[in-house]
Each structure stands twice: as structure tokens, then as C-alpha cells.
Amino acid sequence: MAKTGIIGAGSWGIALSLLLSKNGHEVSVWSALPEEIRELEETHTYHSLPGVQLPDTINFTADLEEVMKDKDLLVTAVPSVYVRETARKMKPWCRYGQMVVNVAKGIEESTLKTLSQILEEELPMANVAVLSGPSHAEEVSRGLPTTCVAGAHDQKTAEYIQNVFMSEVFRVYTSPDILGIELGGSLKNVIALAAGIADGLGYGDNTKAALITRGIAEITRLGVAMGGKVETFAGLSGIGDLIVTCASMHSRNRRAGILIGQGYTMEEAMKEVKMVVEGVYSAKAALKLAKKYHIPMPIIEQVNEVLFDNKPASEAVKDLMLRDKTMENTRLLWQ
């Protein structure tokens, strides 16, 4: 049995708390919102996971020291925009060698750092790892078969995380490529916005297949240039996460994109979705990274113009279709 503390009581943090509890681990969940903790304690349900009952064995607290004290494993599940602030609050109670697994997805716009890089910067004493993949909280909380990948600097840490999380309905693979895992998980949210916009415009399966395929090409080009491994982008946290986020109505990024395609502004779409739309926060960072590494990312560029420059979505699609003619893969040579 592992003593686990989950920092963040959003739908993903709650779904993982249920998974870990069913796996026989001791689980505590922290939220910065006392009213959220009161609701969880009183009802043992979570509003974004209807029909899911949480066991009495899960402890809920608004005390950060309590959720961190004497834990074998800490899971950071706060939205990307709050990761640095939360890590700073964690520092007084983070012991040397403390295992911290980040399960959030995003890139910090101001620094272009991944979330694990932020955690390592703010918590230099910690052993930071990641867990990511095609894993909607709604399905994990219902026990539907799901696969993820655990990334860590050393094999022992990755295998420990694998053992803690793995069950008959939650399969975990291991990988040394933390950077690639995080980039795939972050950048796919921006492509999912594009897929949703296409849905909102009334386009079909051909369009979505094109966005997914060309989207993973963009993500892979940038990810490899930054030091990620091409195999990672062909795996669960790359094409796997991209497919599920572009295709599922559980995806808040796709839902926001649909609304934008139907004529909503970015602000109106985020308000309607009622949850953090990570792709909006990652879009500018993705474009900055593309320019920094001189990587062509036309889908990312057009999403940014629609989100922040009021470009009509239909015009963005036309510009994507009418770009200069090119080969599908420039590494393939004619004989």
C-alpha cells in the first residue's frame, strides 16, 4: 500500500483518487477551495463526474501540509496555469527525494517550460515524474479500460508509478522521455481546438482525419527539435492522446472549438464549457516554441489567429488548404 496525496480536486484528480483507492492505497485529496472540500466530504460525489460515488476511505482536506505529510507519492493535478503557484506553496513541506507525479498538461507561456520543468525549478529537492495518455476522467472514474505512460528520469521511479496506478482497467507503460510525453500531452490540446472548430463549421470525417494526421506531424517536428523522441509521438501520449481529444465530446478543448466554429468568441466558448480549456493557454506558447525552433506549424498558427486575432474560422481553414504545395514527408526521397 502506498500513501498518496493528490493535489488538485478537479475531475482528473478525483478520478485518479478513485482509481488509487480501488487499488488499495491510502488516498488524501487537497483543494485550494474550502467549499469544494466541504461538498466532497458531505456528498462523496463530484459534480463533473455524475453517477460516480467516492468511497469514505478517501480523505479530503484544504490543508496542504496534511495532504503532503509522510506521503510515498504526491500527484499534482491542478490546471497548468496554477502549477507554479501551487508548487511554491508546496515547497515548505516537500522533503528531499519526494516523488511528485504531474498529471496535468500544458506549457507555461511566459517561460515556455513544461509543467515538470516548473515543478523541478520550484521543488529542486523532489523526484519529479509524469503520467499521461488518452485518459478522460469521465471514463477512468467509471472503470473503463484505459492506458497511460509513466515518464521518469530513472527506471525505478517509472516502475514504481506503474505498480501504484496499474489495475485490470488501467494499464501503465513506462518511458524515459518525460519531455516528449509532456509536449505531446500539451500540444494536442491546440490541435483538438482546431478539430472542434472544423466540427462547428460542419465539416466531416475527412477534415478531422487531416487535422489529426497533419497535427501529429507538427507536434512531432517540434517535439523532436526540442529533444523529445519520435517514438513517443507515435505512442500513447502522442497520437493516442491526440485521437481521443479530437474525437471525444468529453474533450473540453474539442467542445470549445465546436462553439468557436459556430461563431462564439474564445471568451464565450470558455465560459460555456465551464472548465479550464488548456488548449487556449497552450496555443500562444506553442506558437512561440515553433518560432524559437524554426519549425513550420501552420495549424497552430491558424488556431492562434482564430483565438486571438478574430480571424474567421472558415477563412483559417481556406488558408490551410491553399498553402504552397509540398511533399507529405520531406525525408522521403525519389529514387
TrEMBL record:
Residues covered by the Glycerol-3-phosphate dehydrogenase NAD-dependent C-terminal domain: 177-318
Highest taxon, organism lineage: Bacteria
Pathway the protein acts in: Membrane lipid metabolism; glycerophospholipid metabolism
Protein residues bound to sn-glycerol 3-phosphate: K105, G133, S135, K188, D241, S251, R252, N253
Gene Ontology biological process terms, A to Z: carbohydrate metabolic process; glycerol-3-phosphate biosynthetic process; glycerol-3-phosphate catabolic process; glycerophospholipid metabolic process; phospholipid biosynthetic process
Catalytic activity: sn-glycerol 3-phosphate + NAD(+) = dihydroxyacetone phosphate + NADH + H(+); sn-glycerol 3-phosphate + NADP(+) = dihydroxyacetone phosphate + NADPH + H(+)
Principal localisation: cytoplasm
Enzyme active site: K188
Entries under Pfam families matching the protein: NAD_Gly3P_dh_C (PF07479), NAD_Gly3P_dh_N (PF01210)
Cross-referenced PROSITE patterns: NAD_G3PDH
EC number from the UniProt entry: 1.1.1.94
InterPro entries noted in UniProt: 6-PGluconate_DH-like_C_sf, 6PGD_dom2, G3P_DH_NAD-dep, G3P_DH_NAD-dep_C, G3P_DH_NAD-dep_N, NAD(P)-bd_dom_sf
Class of enzymatic activity (EC top level): oxidoreductase
Gene Ontology cellular-component annotations: cytosol
Keyword Endoplasmic reticulum attached: no
Subcellular location field: Cytoplasm
Gene Ontology MF, one: glycerol-3-phosphate dehydrogenase [NAD(P)+] activity
Keyword Lipid biosynthesis: yes
Record-annotated Glycerol-3-phosphate dehydrogenase NAD-dependent N-terminal domain positions: 5-157
Protein name, as recorded: Glycerol-3-phosphate dehydrogenase [NAD(P)+]
